[in-house]
Amino acid sequence: MDFVGQPFQGSTNYNTAPRQKAWIIRQEESDERSPAQAQWWLIPNWVKEESYKYSMFNARSENAATSPAFRGPFRSQRCVVPITGFYEWVNRNGQKQPYFVHAPQENGLLLAGLWDRWYNPNTNEPLDSFAILTTDVVPDLKFLHHRQPVMLSMDDAKTWLSRDTSVASLQELCQSRLPYDMLASPVSPYVNNVRNRGEECVEIIGDTIALSVT
User: Which of 75, 149, 183, 195 has its CA 20 to 30 A from that of 143?
Assistant: First the structure.
């Protein structure tokens, strides 16, 4: 999964990939919610060096509360990742056909995420990073993948960020569902190259599939 991030440093990245920067929304110690820039690939605060050996850009929601890498952020460092939509691919006759999953009537999607802050032991510079939570896919999206990001409504996002939310309620938010009616649109293979980040990535080239709220 790659996604269309909200404008970063003045421009929109239409093909945000792991290890790139994106916007997140998190709840500060003052209880105010604020945007922040972070790397999409979580680096746990306790590791000795910045490493990309393991795939830490996504986190399975089923075990995030107990995983050594994610249980701390799941408890107290949750975030929301605002995106325009995300991509998944279908293999057709040896070709990768990308689909853009989006909710144009809602002006974007809110994904459940976890963030952490790692300090470089040599320079003491902080690195904020995040992972996107995933869950089992809803039936309408099974043609694309067996997993999907955890998507939140606006009210869900407030609950997700609140420090008063119980673990049981957090896990309930991670259930397989769509918060809105959505669309899956086949788009140009231009997006298949991660170096391509322009608006051509979301050029629709075929029939759009309607996805019903669940």
Answer: 195
How many whole angstroms separate alpha carbon 99 and alpha carbon 68? 33
Does residue 8 carry a pLDDT above 70?
no
pTM over 0.90: yes
Nearest Cα neighbor of 179 from 127, 75, 99, 105 is 105
Q: Give me 96's structure tokens.
A: 């990768």
DSSP string of 70-137, one letter each residue:
THHHHHH-EEEEEEEEEEEEEEETTEEEEEEEE-GGGTSEEEEEEEEEEE-TTT--EEEEEEEEEEEP
E strands in 137-181:
147-149, 151-152
The set of residues, in sequence order, having a beta carbon less than 8 Å from that of 195 and lying 6+ positions away, is none
Tokens of 44: 């746990």
- In this structure, are residues 111 and 132 in contact, taking their beta carbons and an 8 Å threshold? yes
Please write the tens of the pLDDT for every residue from 126-152: 999 999 999 999 999 999 999 999 999
Mean pLDDT confidence for 180-202: 94
CA angle centred on 29, ends 27 and 34, rounded to 5°? 35
| Mean pLDDT of the 49-77 span | 94
For residues 130 and 33, what is the distance between their CA atoms, to the nearest angstrom? 16
What phi and psi values does residue 142 have, to the nearest 5 degrees?
-65, -25
Is-contact 214 138, C-beta < 8 A?
yes
CB-based contacts of 19, cutoff 8 Å, min separation 6: 39, 40, 41, 52, 57
